[in-house]
Amino acid sequence: MSGLHERHLAVSPEWLTLYYRDPLELTHGEGRHVWDADGNRYLDFFGGILTTMTAHALPEVTKAVSEQAGRLLHSSTLYLNRPMVELAERVAALSGIPDARVFFTTSGTEANDTALLLATAHRGSNQILAMRNSYHGRSFSAVSVTGNRSWSTTSLSPLQTLYVHGGVRSRGPYAELSDERFIEACAADLEDLLGHTRGAAALIAEPVQGVGGFTAPPDGLYAAFREVLDRHGILWISDEVQTGWGRTGDHFWGWQAHARNGPPDILTFAKGIGNGMSIGGVVARADVMNCLDANSISTFGGSPVTMAAGLANLSYLLEHDLQGNARRVGGLLIERLRAVGAGSPAVREVRGRGLMIGIELVKPGTDDADPEAAAAVLEAARAGGLLIGKGGGHNTSVLRIAPPLSLTVAEAEEGAEILGEALGAAT
Question: Euclidean distance between the first and final Cα of the chain, in Å?
Fold first, then answer.
């Protein structure tokens, strides 16, 4: 055990998770690579949990941060803030939400917490619909709408949460249905559920479930849900903390795969927009955002430094068509990983879109999750020079792959080869 690990254990909560038997201290990064304290170099396929979206040490972002820090580090929302207004204008325009208003936070958890506050205030109800296998953050309210028991730390809640079918396509009672019938069954189940409730405030849903193992419904499910929700006056919150900014390749936002009945009422974002800086936020229609009848501010949300980083990062993303790169290179990567998975009896499914890919592991010859194998592959990949993540619900065990969106074809090929070797060695 390293000295730093010992010091960490002495001052940190026991529930603060660390990857690897010998935890890793990262010291610096560049592009799609990072280095540890022993000088080892790794290809990064997890990007600080999908947060280093563009590249490590991206010069455009570091320059913007340095220049803004040299002028003004902090002011709070009590003062006009030019970088915050400029980024809000761009996010509002990109969101697809008409007459949009934007509120910045410091994390995805805080963004979802704010969205729940807005929805419950607007509707005068503390009842929330959430998806099974979901994850929305670690605050008291966000945990209470998380449908994944591995991350739901308490049953105490300020909200009454009801869980809906549909977030997981290949498991559960509707798994054997066609996509069309799957959507019909889930929408009918939602309608039936609402017949037993009193005026829910909102449905909160990740278009692709992140911590849940990169699971997703067929395209169009949330459009079908929207028809049901609209009949009951219920808001739709799209949690885009992991799916936003073009990561799925096909769309800029995850909700756009379900766009037949328009955009969500509320959209939350975080992670990638700051490329490592602490930015989260909420976009909502003006009538929803303005429904609060009490004063509020944010001390650190919309910080001049983080906003400068977000503006520079978003500009780079759009100017270099990183969404298109995620579609092209991600398509190649998932093909390679499916070929690798076809040769391993431990791989149940390789799924995803763009640069958001999950490899679900099971005990060979069964449909049972194999978390020990997932941990072993994580270790073997690290030994081979590759960093990946893991996740999944109560009955799944998934390797999570989400590199920076500037990933090259050569790096995709290299990562797939290392993963293939790690699966062979560990399963």
Answer: 26
Both tokens of 396, joined, read 């799944």
| Segment 222-250 mean pLDDT | 98
Q: Say whether pLDDT at 119 is over 80.
A: yes
pTM above 0.85, yes or no: yes
Q: How many CA atoms, within 13 angstroms, populate the side-chain half-sphere of residue 311? A: 19
Would you say 92 and 102 are in contact if contact means Cβ atoms under 8 Å apart?
yes
CA atoms within 13 A on the CB side of 5: 13
Q: What value does the mean pLDDT of the chain take?
A: 95
> What's the whole-number mean pLDDT along residues 358-373?
96
Residue with tokens 């009454």: 160
Cα–Cα distance, 111 to 121 (Å, whole number): 15
| pLDDT surpassing 80 at residue 154 | no
SS (H, E, C) the chain: CCHHHHHHHHHCCCCCCCCCCCCCCEEEEEECEEEECCCCEEEECCHHHHCCCCCECCHHHHHHHHHHHHHCCCCCCCCCCHHHHHHHHHHHHHHCCCCEEEEEECCHHHHHHHHHHHHHHHHCCCEEEEECCCCCCCCHHHHHCCCCCCCCCCCCCCCEEEEECCCCCCCCCCCCCCHHHHHHHHHHHHHHHHCCCCCCCEEEECCCECCCCCECCCCCHHHHHHHHHHHHCCEEEEECCCCCCCCCCCCCCHHHHHHHHCCCCEEEECHHHHECECCEEEEEEHHHHCCCCCCCCCCCCCCHHHHHHHHHHHHHHHHCCHHHHHHHHHHHHHHHHHHHHHCCCCEEEEEEECCEEEEEEECCCCCCECHHHHHHHHHHHHHCCEECEEECCCCCCEEEECCCCCCCHHHHHHHHHHHHHHHHHHC
Contact 392, 212 (CB under 8 A): yes
pLDDT at 153: 67
Predicted pLDDT of residue 263? 98
Residue 427 corresponds to which amino acid? T
Structure tokens at 303: 């910080």
pLDDT tens digits for range 200-215? 999 999 999 999 999 9
pLDDT in tens, 51-77: 999 999 999 999 999 999 999 999 999
Q: pLDDT by residue (tens digit) across 310-330?
A: 999 999 999 999 999 999 999
Count Cβ atoms within 10 A of the Cβ of residue 287 and give its class: 0-12 exposed, 13-18 middle, 19 or more buried.
exposed
